[in-house]
Design brief:
This protein folds into two domains: about 220 residues, Citrate Synthase, domain 1, CATH 1.10.580; about 100 residues, Cytochrome p450-Terp, domain 2 (Orthogonal Bundle), CATH 1.10.230.10. The chain contains 16 helices and three strands. The longest helix has 25 residues. The chain has a three-stranded antiparallel beta sheet with strand order 1-2-3. By secondary structure, the chain is mostly helical. The structure holds acetyl coenzyme *A and oxaloacetate ion (OAA). GO terms for molecular function: citrate synthase activity.
Length: about 375
């Protein structure tokens, strides 16, 4: 049996949700550049779940469904309060809370189309409320209830801070949500599909996807980028920091990609936003450091930034705690996970590859006293 490490290049399914062709990303055939410049995140949710753009009426209906389902049950807020808030990573809290959403949904085990849609809305609507409630609780603050009159992006920032966000913050955050929504068969989406291909439920699929997104080789890289920028501290330190990492053969977070070779088409949008926002907050040194790192990595290793590199300074400039960056990725990506889970159900077959066994064979059992 030939083994392809990390399943590189293996085509594991057909899909009509998003495509990466010649380093261009499209959702259902719409180029990511056009979507990033024009679409609201709610339109993207509709597009991924229905594989067409919504009419105005359909969009309003989706927005209403999300708004009506965003409030968390008291029991779930109490479960969040009971977590060791001063030490648990927000991704672990989110993973557990999403699992609990399934526990509190009396229809969690129903698998018909309508029940699955209601579960999808429940997840998409409540993930932002979970992340923001957790963030406030661990600061000794009470969660802020979602507002029905705000957009998805504005509502997240409002629930986080209890203040109505500035238009520029809403625009940047909406764009970041659009850019992170789906990405073909990335590790967390594949995880979700493997899980539900056993005909397990949507909550289980999303819970396992959150576990996969958490790792620093995937979604966790955005938090790690900010850690790196903080450690470097000043543009004058970039050279020695990066050279040291290269000598130690350590990875530079936010660079490299399994699929893109020339570059990640999402990065340029985040780069533009990072420039604008760091100027506004008076932290241009973050952008200057990023540009210098980008130049060095290109020259020394021909590596280019992925979606996680500039998103870090965008979120930082919006005043967001660094360990919330990956949960925010999940708030967006859950739209893609759900689209893939529903697509998997539509044409399901158990996902079960093989392993090439390389361990010992034909050993004789050794009794305990002889070992
Ligand atoms: C949303 C997302 O998930 S985007 C990705 C987020 N992850 C990161 O930013 C973490 C840093 N990047 C990486 O670890 C990798 O580039 C990955 C995981 C994204 C892709 O990994 P793979 O396709 O498996 O590539 P792999 O790790 O085998 O790297 C290939 C070569 O490029 C090098 N390389 C790849 N990425 C990096 C990096 N960020 N820094 C330094 N070297 C790198 C590897 O060391 C390896 O070199 P070698 O052939 O001399 O040993
Ligand atoms: O596709 C991947 O491997 C990782 C990625 O960029 C994403 O999930 O957005």
């Amino acid at each position: 049996m030939a083994v392809t490490r990390g399943l590189e290049g293996i085509i594991a399914t057909t899909s009509s949700i998003s495509s990466i062709i010649d380093d261009s990303l499209a959702y259902v055939g719409y180029d990511i550049d056009a979507l990033a410049e024009n679409a609201s995140f709610e339109e993207i949710i509709y597009l991924l779940w229905n594989r067409r753009l919504p009419t105005n009426q359909e969009l309003i209906q989706l927005q209403q469904e999300l708004a009506e389902n965003a409030e968390l049950p008291k029991s779930l807020i109490n479960q969040l309060r009971m977590m060791p808030l001063d030490q648990v990573h927000p991704m672990s809290a989110l993973r557990s809370a999403v699992s609990l959403l399934g526990v509190y949904d009396e229809n969690a085990e129903l698998m018909d189309e309508k029940s699955n849609y209601l579960k999808a809305i429940n997840l998409q609507a409540k993930l932002p409320t979970i992340v923001t409630a957790f963030s406030r609780l661990r600061k000794g603050l009470e969660p802020v209830s979602p507002r029905k009159d705000l957009s998805f992006a504005a509502n997240f920032l409002y629930m986080l801070t209890a203040k109505e966000p500035e238009p520029i913050a809403i625009e940047a955050f909406n764009k970041a949500l659009v850019l992170h929504a789906d990405h073909e068969l990335n590790a967390s989406t594949f995880t979700a599909r493997v899980c539900v291909a056993t005909l397990s439920d949507i909550y289980s699929g999303v819970t396992s996807a959150i576990g996969a997104l958490k790792g620093p080789l995937h979604g966790g890289a955005n938090e790690a980028v900010m850690k790196m920028l903080t450690e470097i501290g000043d543009v004058d330190n970039v050279d020695s920091y990066i050279k040291d990492k290269m000598i130690k053969k350590e990875k530079i977070m936010g660079f490299g990609h399994r699929v893109y070779r020339k570059g990640d088409p999402r990065a340029k949008h985040l780069k533009q936003m990072a420039k604008k926002l760091t100027e506004l907050t008076g932290e241009s040194h973050l952008f200057d450091m990023s540009i210098k790192i980008e130049g060095m990595l290109k020259q020394e290793k021909n590596l280019v930034p992925n979606v996680d590199f500039f998103s870090a300074s965008v979120y930082h400039s919006l005043g967001i705690d660094h360990d919330l960056f990956t949960p925010i990725f999940a708030v967006s990506r859950v739209s893609g996970w759900i689209a893939h889970i529903l697509e998997q159900y539509e044409n399901n077959r158990l996902i079960r590859p093989r392993a090439d066994y390389v361990g010992p064979e034909r050993l004789s059992y050794v009794p305990m006293q002889e070992r």
